[in-house]
Amino acid sequence: MTLARRIIPCLDVRAGRVVKGTRFRDHRDMGDIVELAQRYAASGADELVFYDITASPEGRGVDVGWVERVARSIDIPFCVAGGIRSVATARAVLHAGADKVSVNTPATQRPELVGELAEAFGVQCVVVGVDSLRDEDGQWRIRQFTGSPDATRALEVTTLDWVRRVVDLGAGEVVLNCMGSDGVRDGYDLEQLAAVREVCPVPLVASGGAGAPAHFVDVFREADVDGALAATVFHDGSIPIPALKRTLAQAGVEVRLDASPTPTQEAS
Amino acid sequence: MRVALVDGGGTNIGSVSYALERLGATSRLTADPGDILAADRVILPGVGAAGAGMRRLRELGLVDVLHQVEAPLLGVCLGMQLLFERSAEDGGVETLGLVPGEVRGIPPRPGVRVPHMGWNSLVDLVEDPLLTGIEEGERAYFVHSYAAPSGASTLAATEHGGRWSAVVRSGRRWGAQFHPERSSALGARFLRNFLHEVEG
Fold first, then answer.
1. Which residue range is the domain that position A62 belongs to?
2. Per-residue pLDDT tens for B138-150?
3. Which residues in chain B are contacts of A87 at CB distance < 8 A?
4. Cα–Cα distance list, A232 to A33, A54, A63, A174, B51 (Å)
5. CB pairs under 8 A between A and B
6. DSSP SS3 for A65
7. pLDDT for A236-267, tens place per residue?
8. Measuring CA to CA, which of A226, B30, B67, B141 is 20 to 30 A from A153?
9. pLDDT tens-digit profile of A97-120?
10. CB distance B115–A172 less than 8 Å?
11. Nearest chain B Cα to A91, which residue?
């Protein structure tokens, strides 16, 4: 196979700025969204995910102004997550230039949304984010409203059944956020990701737990995921993407090494 | 240079025009036959399904217009698939027939995920002005579930559970299965070649 495994930084966006902090409080301003997006694109990120944290809790849709600014300024694909609850919102985001939209809690409330999005835009535009945690009986089950600890609710459906279902409905990609390993920086949840891989014929992206370059090597080798998403280790500079790509290549993982100069140099 | 972006209702139209902007070229999003036939370059972008894509081109009266285009024409992603004669998508669709060949579903199997999504290598490159400065093995960004098997019109292929056309040409019609507007430096080079290396 020659298809490269993808490295995907995730940026939290609030009111058009990139922020850092726990998702709903203590936000620290990290900078201008376009500037950071261009920096990641130039450093060899294969794709970016923007998680709009203004959108979800306040019941608002996504402000497409920043989506368009990002689309104009970078030349790698990007996905917008947060605040997408309808075909109309998704259309506005995709028309503004996003390549994919990602739905999570709204899909758990109304699974038909996944099919409606796939029908309207094609499965290649539809990502389903899955927040998953192991319960005391040993089963992985999904959570909704995970943005706020007080609002988070556990659902009955097991993670494996939910992934099968959303793929049937038209998900073109699944991002599995393993909540048990999220924020701990102790590595991705290889056991869970490998189990989901077994039932997921579409691209699968690992999320939650990256703390060292070896964790990326492990998740591609052991769980056979197509992409690995991370936030903190990229934002704080502890794992520079060019070095990570070299480590992966040396470990025999297929990656894209031909990072390019930024497109802004060509702008007129 | 007048670049016409054919408004076939796809969602990646904005991205293509932004990529042209980054190269210093302006394009006009249009469904007007006069605009399309007067352009120096015509680009048919498109994300979505073949059935809806063809229906829209027919409704707009653009099928004949695209056949009449004499300037270099470039189909991107679904736009490239529509250049072929038929697509297996949506139960089988007759497409524009500007490039010989057919589009099929990529068969999923263990290790071959569908959609084919991500950065894959361009291989088996054939010399062509559109590929000036692009090297064997360079990567481009793909996202699609249907594809044209590599064949006589193929200028570059890519491997994903089979060998598929990544770039095709028939006369003055070219197509890219990948997204040049999202393929970093390679994509910029490719679009610049279409504007400046391909003979007008």
1. 6-255
2. 999 999 999 999 9
3. none
4. 16, 19, 24, 21, 43
5. 126
6. helix
7. 999 999 999 999 999 999 999 965 444 444 43
8. A226
9. 999 999 999 999 999 999 999 998
10. yes
11. B11
Residue A261 lies in a domain: no
Contact predicate B71/B171, CB 8 Å: no
Question: Which run of H or E residues covers position A212?
Answer: none
**ipTM of this predicted structure:** 0.94
Q: Which residue of B has its CA nearest to A96?
A: B14
Q: How far is CA B154 from CA A96, B76, B149, B189, in A?
A: 32, 14, 9, 19
CB spacing of B24 vs A268 below 8 angstroms: yes
Model confidence over A84-95: pLDDT tens digits?
A: 999 999 999 998
User: CB A124 to CB B144 under 8 A?
Assistant: yes
* Unique residue bearing structure tokens 């393993």: A178
Please report which residue ranges of chain A form alpha helices under DSSP H.
33-42, 64-73, 87-95, 105-109, 112-121, 159-169, 190-199, 213-223, 232-235, 241-250
**C-alpha span between A81 and A29 (Å, rounded):** 19
**Nearest-5° Cα angle at A5, B193 to A228:** 125
What is the distance between the alpha carbons of residues A161 and B193, in angstroms, rounded to a whole number? 48
Taking the CA of residue A27 and the nearest CA in chain B, the distance in Å comes to 31
- Identify whether A1 is part of a domain: no
Inter-chain contact A68–B14, Cβ cutoff 8 Å?
A: yes
- Assign residue B57 a region (left: φ > 0; alpha: ψ between -120 and 50; beta: otherwise): alpha
HSE at residue A175, side-chain half, CA atoms within 13 A, is 28
Q: What is the DSSP letter of B108?
A: P
CB atoms near residue A43 (< 10 Å): 18
Count of domains forming chain A: 1
Q: Is B4 exposed, middle or buried (0-12, 13-18, 19+ CB in 10 A)?
A: buried
DSSP-derived 3-state class of residue B19 = helix
The domain that holds A31 is classified in CATH as: 3.20.20.70
Contact yes or no for A114/A171 (Cβ under 8 A): yes
* Domain B3-196: CATH architecture, name and number where available: 3-Layer(aba) Sandwich (3.40)
pTM listed for this prediction: 0.94
Residue closest to A201 by CA, chosen among A169, A158, A162, A164: A164
Q: Which two tokens stand for residue A84?
A: 């997408």
Separation of alpha carbons A53 and A58, rounded Å: 9
